[in-house]
Amino acid sequence: QVQLVESGGGLVQAGGSLRLSCAASGRTFSNYIMGWFRQAPGKEREFVAAISYYGGRTNYADSVKGRFTISRDNAKNTVYLQMSSLKSEDTASYYCATNTRWGLWMPDTYNGWGQGTQVTVSS
Prior knowledge:
Strand order of the largest sheet: 2-10-9-4-5-6
Structural class: mainly beta
Order of helices and strands: EEEEEEEEEE
Strand content: over 45%
Low-confidence stretches: none
């Protein structure tokens, strides 16, 4: 069992930056692949980024490549999402979750969802 809590969201202007955090407790953090997802009102939850157990591999949705960076600090049981050059299309609730197999990007393959943190980008 793992518990996840997202934080760091807020209201920003287009072109701005935010750093989201996901703090984990419970089972050993390094045992899990970590993913970030987002969901806008009326839309399905979509994959944003994932990072392997020790950070050696990352994967990003095409829509955020070059703008978002996922990282993790296993000593702090925390995964981060640095978001830059934000666009109105990035407005959504952002969630983190866990997986145990690399190469899976669909939300229904992940577990331990937190409550999410809202990111709103104004134009």
